[in-house]
Design goal:
globular; binds 5-S-methyl-1-O-phosphono-5-thio-D-ribulose; Rossmann fold; 14 strands; Four Helix Bundle (Hemerythrin (Met), subunit A); 15% strand; four-stranded mixed beta sheet; alpha/beta
């Protein structure tokens, strides 16, 4: 029997019997594959904050299962008491990370289930919450596959593709977003040559993207973040595919810190940048990138986390934003599960949501 690899594990899974959300602890990758069970609100919050589970869609799925597990434990038959406690837990989980809109999107979907079913018993509401969380995960898989199909139509066999951070299977329930065209291409013999930026400071590209692509047999080459200009100047990159944490109504996109640098370099070398975005990550209530909240993280991630010895002077000032905003002008297309949106994005993204309303994915 062949050995299991990272692609054989669920990024997020519900274990209803044991009241836990089971995740791969991504802080341990690629050194060891460890599954952990999250039971309490504090454990779920910590896992999201510490990036044990990370990537916008995976955070959404983990939060949906998480709030279901917490709701199950609310002991009351009174709707208002149940709702009040549900909202308290929801707001706590929502505070774990601010940029990826999928976190609040998934939690709000769960709250809607509670609010729409006031006439039902608490026991029935709990069952509906479980169904909704499972539906969020089922949709995630469907959406990523669709994004893969649309993304694949933008490239050709043998192309060089550069990606930044991890918008892979580890960031979703399957396929990833930016990696979905790569995996579908792999199934169809496209032989892409992929460059994975290491992605300082948390190294999601090196630890996660290179790991999962390699495990899948994809031709992947790891580069440092400051090498993307060199590989593009060499003519080795035909397209950039990245994920996103929040797309504003005008197409400005927040993604892992460094994405905007890649996009600026790509413009210089005439390489198209495609942002792979499930509609759950598009936030039409945020008008432009200026209004997207950008998470700032501890200085230690920059000064010492991956080093045997600290590599920066004690007391030095550190700025550690986890995301940056890529101006929509640098984006060739936003690849959603309803098609590829092109500039002007205010119109094309609104059109994507019209399509979603008319014919939701089944
Ligand atoms: O801080 P992280 O690792 O959660 O950041 C992840 C990213 O920036 C991804 O590109 C984004 O969430 C899209 S995942 C499909």
């Amino acid at each position: 029997m062949s050995e299991k690899n990272i692609m054989d594990y669920d990024t997020v899974r519900l274990d209803d019997e044991n009241n836990e959300v089971v995740i791969i602890d991504q802080t341990r990758l690629p050194g060891s594959i460890e599954l952990i069970g999250l039971h309490t609100a504090e454990e779920i919050w910590e896992a999201v904050y510490r990036l044990r589970v990370r990537g916008a869609p995976a955070i959404g799925v983990a939060a949906a299962y998480g709030i279901y597990i917490l709701a199950k434990q609310i002991q009351t038959e009174d709707f208002q008491t149940f709702r009040q406690e549900f909202v308290r837990q929801k707001e706590y989980l929502d505070s774990a990370r601010p940029t990826a809109v999928n976190l609040s999107w998934a939690l709000n979907r769960m709250l809607t289930v509670v609010e729409k079913n006031q006439d039902k018993t608490i026991c029935e509401i709990k069952k509906l919450l479980k169904q909704e969380a499972e539906e969020i995960q089922r949709e995630d898989i469907l959406v990523c596959r669709k994004i893969g199909e649309y993304g694949l139509s933008l490239v050709k066999p043998g192309d060089g593709i550069l990606t930044h951070c991890n918008a892979g299977q580890l960031a979703t329930s399957r396929y990833g977003t930016a990696t979905a065209p790569i995996y579908l291409g792999q199934e169809r013999g496209y032989h892409f040559k992929v460059f994975a930026d290491e992605t300082r400071p948390l190294l999601q590209g090196a630890r996660l993207t290179a790991f999962e692509l390699q495990a899948s047999g994809v031709d992947v080459t790891l580069i440092c973040d400051n090498m993307s200009a060199a590989v593009m100047r060499n003519g080795w990159v035909n397209a950039v595919f990245v994920g996103c944490d929040r797309v504003a109504a005008n197409g400005d996109t927040a993604n892992k810190i460094g994405t905007s640098v890649v996009a600026a370099v790509a413009k210089q070398y005439g390489v198209p940048v495609y942002v792979c975005a499930p509609t759950s990550t598009i936030d039409l209530d945020t008008p432009t990138g200026n209004e997207i909240p950008i998470e700032e993280r501890p200085a230690e991630e920059v000064t010492e986390l991956w080093y045997r010895d600290r590599m920066a002077p004690e007391g030095v000032k550190v700025y550690n934003p986890a995301f940056d905003v890529t101006d929509s002008a640098l984006i060739a297309g936003i690849v959603t599960e309803y098609g590829v949106a092109r500039a002007p994005y205010t119109e094309s993204l609104a059109e994507i949501f019209r399509r979603k309303q008319q014919a939701p994915l089944q």
